[in-house]
Amino acid sequence: VQLQASGGGLVQAGDSLRLSCVASGRGFRGYDVGWFRRASGKDREFVAAVGRTDNITYYASFVEGRFDISIDNAENTAYLQMNSLKPEDTAVYSCATGRTPTVQSDRWYDYWGRGTQVTVSS
Predict the structure, then answer these.
(1) pLDDT tens-digit map of 66-98
(2) CA distances (Å), 96 to each of 11, 26, 84, 111, in order?
């Protein structure tokens, strides 16, 4: 499986971006899908995920209702809609997929895409 993330860019605080993650080789059906981010000088952190068994969505507390994760299985694409962006959201965002015991942990995902840079100016 190969994942390709895109959609990042330079935006101003309050703007929106939609990140995409396209899977090739197989789709996301039956697998957990997560978005993580890594800010400069910091550890990678969980942003959002969709569970494989129940399609329940999970979000980090800092999201505060601003982001929405979704999956289009027909297009083998996962999305992360990000609204009301803040400068502290600046990071490289990566998507991942696999079968994990805990979707919020980056430890268990099998496949990762190269990240896409999101920069939010104040």
Answers:
(1) 999 999 999 999 999 999 999 999 999 999 999
(2) 24, 13, 24, 5
